[in-house]
Amino acid sequence: MRNNFLIVSTGRTATKWLANIMNRGDITVLHEPRGWTDDTFDKAKYAFYQHQSYGEVNGALRYSLLDFDEIKKGIIVREPKSLVVSFSNRRSTKDLIKKIIDINTDYEIFDKYFSMGIPVFHYERMVSDIDYLQNLLNTYGVNYTCTNDDLQTKINTNKQVRYKHFDELPEACKIVFNAMNWNFNFLK
Questions:
Q1: Residue 24 DSSP class
Q2: Edge-to-edge strand order for the sheet containing 120-122?
Q3: Which listed residue, of 15, 16, 60, 75, carries a Cα 20 to 30 Å from 125's Cα?
Q4: 123 with 75: CB under 8 angstroms?
Q5: So what's the pLDDT on residue 5?
Q6: Which residues are 55's β-sheet partners?
Q7: pTM
Q8: What is the SS3 assignment for 28?
Q9: Which of 27, 26, 25, 31 is nearest to 8 (CA)?
Q10: Is the model's pLDDT at 157 over the cut of 90?
Q11: How far is CA 4 from CA 11, 76, 78, in A?
């Protein structure tokens, strides 16, 4: 029986960390194996259909999620202000404003996916609650028992931290963020 899955996100949601943990089980689980740029359904479909037990945690495929038939699907989301702060430590103010708009667009798409019954997992709980993380692995048929060490492992952390809190961001970023609708069902 085939056990393939795809979990998507916006980035900065511990996808690499999750893929590493999931890969300790009995399923091959890869993190963005074709890279972030130009990854599409057409490029990825062969990996899913050639394997009996295969998964990807791959934000690059977030716009193609519905193109995949006969696989389990999922989404990882992060509280929007926290997500923007994480991105802010990797981008200029100009790039961050564009990223805020992109995140909002992604969350609109994720809200549609959620309304279709695709499971949403919350970053904040996933990285702090061992039972929540174990449930996520169980949902996708990954045979691995999570440990407290898994929760302590940090991957892909920001090397430079300019901002720790949303209220410290440049005013232009806060204005753009606050002008957008963040009232999504999956965040309730």
A1: T
A2: 28-31, 53-57, 3-8, 72-77, 120-122
A3: 60
A4: no
A5: 97
A6: 5, 29
A7: 0.94
A8: strand
A9: 31
A10: no
A11: 21, 17, 24
Task: Encode 23-39: b = buried (16+ Cβ within 10 Å), e = exposed.
Answer: bbbebbbebbebeeeeb
Among 57, 84, 81, 59, residue whose Cα is nearest residue 71: 57
Residue 74 CB-half CA count within 13 A: 23
CB 77 within 8 A of CB 8: no
Predicted confidence (pLDDT) at residue 7 exceeds the cutoff of 80: yes
What pLDDT is stored for residue 180 in this prediction? Answer: 97
Q: Evaluate whether 185 touches 115 at the Cβ level (below 8 Å).
A: yes
Listed in sequence order, the DSSP H helices in 7-142 are: 15-22, 41-49, 80-88, 93-115, 123-126, 130-139
Q: Residue 2: its pLDDT value, please?
A: 85
pLDDT (mean) for 136-148: 97
Residue whose token pair is 């430079």: 160
Domain residues of the chain, as ranges?
3-187
What count of other Cβ atoms lies within 10 Å of the Cβ of residue 174? Answer: 16
Q: Please determine, for residue 156, whether its predicted confidence score (pLDDT) is greater than 80.
A: no
